[in-house]
């Protein structure tokens, strides 16, 4: 089964493709099929992921899966949330993973509470108007490190510590990270939904 991934993030594509492989599902990056991105005007992960999935399905005629993920920092009242990818641009930085990490460390410096959560919401639609989207959520409680640690992964991985492991995501091998990450959890939940709905019906 071919499914378009409603994302232009190659790191995300590689992570999800490796996890979906046992299902015999082939993920295709939307950037390889069309130009443009869906509007994401909403304040919640699930609404934005649904918007992206419907947009990709409409553009390609294929089933689509979209991920909306973000960092929810306790000291910031749950922000940056859905605005995680553009977090640093609100503070005068150009958009990049590295600048996002720099900005987070600067803004969190005065705060004693370094607790946060990484949340990943995956939404799948069979068609643009699918009335029964598949929704899978993965959430991991983390603590923000005071400096970067590790060289794997992407995004905020160098400063996201899993407290019970004492390691950042960037210090983990990819397979180990997939076992413990928010996206790993949402992907396993989505795989089960795909297996019992779309794939069992095909």
From TrEMBL:
List of residues binding substrate: 7-12, 69, 154-157, 177, 182-183
Query: Reaction catalysed by this chain?
Result: XTP + H2O = XMP + diphosphate + H(+); ITP + H2O = IMP + diphosphate + H(+); dITP + H2O = dIMP + diphosphate + H(+)
* EC class (word): hydrolase
Q: Which Pfam families match?
A: Ham1p_like
Q: Which cofactor does it need?
A: Mg(2+)
Active-site residues, Swiss-Prot/TrEMBL: 68
Give the UniProt keywords, A-Z.
Answer: Hydrolase, Magnesium, Metal-binding, Nucleotide metabolism, Nucleotide-binding
Family, per the entry? Answer: Belongs to the HAM1 NTPase family.
What name goes with this protein?
A: dITP/XTP pyrophosphatase
């Amino acid at each position: 089964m071919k499914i378009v991934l409603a994302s232009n993030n190659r790191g995300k594509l590689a992570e999800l493709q490796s996890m979906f492989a046992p299902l015999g599902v082939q993920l295709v990056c939307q950037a390889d099929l069309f130009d443009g991105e869906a509007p994401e005007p909403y304040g919640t992960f699930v609404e934005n992921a649904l918007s992206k999935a419907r947009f990709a399905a409409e553009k390609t005629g294929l089933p689509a899966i979209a991920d909306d993920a973000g960092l929810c920092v306790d000291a910031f009242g749950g922000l940056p949330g859905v605005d995680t990818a553009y977090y640093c641009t609100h503070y005068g930085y150009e958009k990049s993973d590295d600048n996002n990490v720099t900005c987070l460390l600067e803004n969190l410096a005065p705060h004693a509470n370094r607790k946060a959560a990484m949340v990943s919401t995956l939404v799948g639609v069979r068609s643009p108007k699918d009335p029964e989207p598949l929704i899978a959520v993965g959430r991991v409680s983390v603590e923000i490190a005071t400096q970067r640690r590790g060289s794997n992964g992407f995004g905020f991985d160098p400063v996201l510590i899993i407290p019970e492991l004492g390691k950042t995501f960037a210090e983990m091998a990819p397979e180990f990270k997939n076992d413990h990450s928010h996206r790993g959890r949402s992907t396993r939940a989505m795989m089960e939904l795909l297996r019992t709905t779309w794939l069992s019906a095909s």
